[in-house]
């Protein structure tokens, strides 16, 4: 080989060596990344993966929290009580429940309603997956989630779903004794210091009741609500008129004596207000758009004297409720006349941020003379409610009586249904 040819070949050799070196380096790099996947990672890779994981978790949490509730300027609501749900759930499979509740919600939608108040905890039982409360006995050994199914079905029909809770009413001593030791209420029942203070029996009432005088009790109520709002795409939380179950001084004598307060009624009102405020704040901390409403008795004096429910504060100040649904279950000639009562509530509601929704007793069309003999009375009450300056909706109690009345009352109920649906349209 001549010198000239060597000179010509040398550049090619150098290029080839550089190419092979570069390929070898790339091969090693790829092997390192693959070999270390899922085993030992360098700091840069660890940081990158950790950041992606955190981003993914934050996105999931953000999606859950930022659910945009479905609520309406004018509520047209109907109550689904635990008695209604019991018929759909008892002895029924998941598919049977889906079919029956789906039909019920379609009935509601077709009638012109846009909101359902669904009883998800009537006692200490839960119609949803809960770490704080046991599942309802109506489910038996079944493990499906009624609330999840209801939400899915209802939202497809553009129905707003408010989870209805009785905050203080529990089951009987027998049902509480049968609970797993892990539940808070069972722990209080088994604790000699808390049984009779946190958890109290009431004369002539088979149920036990939580006592709102204690921080731990109010926190349990708020935590129970938070659990629902965090885990389910509910549009609202709804309480009804079960606050203090008695006016008897023995119910909370020990706590009152320790409080240092002088007026029992005022002190009890403060306790309920603290609970209501805590629940409101807990809901808004998770999702500010989820509504919180209370359905007190229609009789204002009873709210204060029997329930210790400070409806005047709730209707006039921010930070307690988003809507109030007084149960104005009275006829026009009642001892608490319908027109007079709704006008009192209209005057009471001075906070523009609180909606006034009038609750009506459709069930009385088969049980009370004025309702029985005046066809269209509920529709007439809806019309009169709409004339109020603060009117923002109506609610009818309850599903069963409007859609599943016993055959002997079917003609009367069907007649009333026709008037109601016409007025809702």
List the main descriptive attributes of the protein structure presented here.
single chain; 425 residues; alpha/beta; TIM Barrel; eight-stranded parallel beta barrel; three-stranded antiparallel beta sheet; 11 strands; 50% helix; globular; disordered N terminus
What does this structure look like?
The chain has 425 residues and is of the alpha/beta class. It folds into two domains: 3-59; 75-424, Glycosidases (TIM Barrel), CATH 3.20.20.80. Helix content is 50%, strand content 13%. Helix 8 runs parallel beside helix 10 and helix 15 runs parallel beside helix 17. The chain starts with a helix and ends with a helix. Residues 1-47 have low confidence and may be disordered.
Domains counted in the coordinates: how many? 2
Average pLDDT for all residues:
88
Helix content: 40-55%
CATH homologous superfamily (4th level) name of the largest domain: Glycosidases
| Number of H/I helices | 17
β-strand amount = 5-15%
Which structural class best describes the helix and strand composition? alpha/beta
Instruction: Report the span from N to C terminus.
Output: 103 Å
Count all strands and give the number. 11
Within the CATH hierarchy, at the fold level, what is the topology of the largest domain?
TIM Barrel
Low-pLDDT segments, ≥5 res: 1-47
Alpha-carbon Rg, integer:
30 Å
